[in-house]
Design goal:
By secondary structure, this protein is an alpha+beta fold. The protein has helices at 6-9, 25-33, 49-54, and strands spanning 40-43, 60-63.
Length: 86
């Protein structure tokens, strides 16, 4: 997808997957963190999933899975870093 397409620049609802080619992990993290919304994300990696997820400034992130549920107590949106709880 192009970087200016609505699926990349605007908030989407439903099962949506926007694929944008990047040079490396650092570029991917920078692009995600520069977004306006940051509601949720998923990281797929055999060895570095948690390390990559910790760098993302989003409301919630799943690792090697999709976000399948949400409760009223979960953070909604993130224009800045959300404190992490374990």
């Amino acid at each position: 997808m192009s970087l200016d397409s609505l699926a990349v620049t605007e908030e989407t609802f439903g099962p949506t997957l926007a694929v944008v080619k990047v040079a490396d992990t650092d570029e991917a993290v920078a692009r995600i963190n520069s977004g306006r919304y940051g509601l949720g994300s998923a990281v797929f990696s055999r060895e570095r999933g948690e390390a990559i997820a910790r760098r993302l400034r989003v409301g919630m992130t799943s690792i090697n899975d999709v976000l399948v549920f949400m409760t009223r107590k979960m953070p909604r949106g993130c224009g800045q870093a959300v404190p992490r709880r374990r």
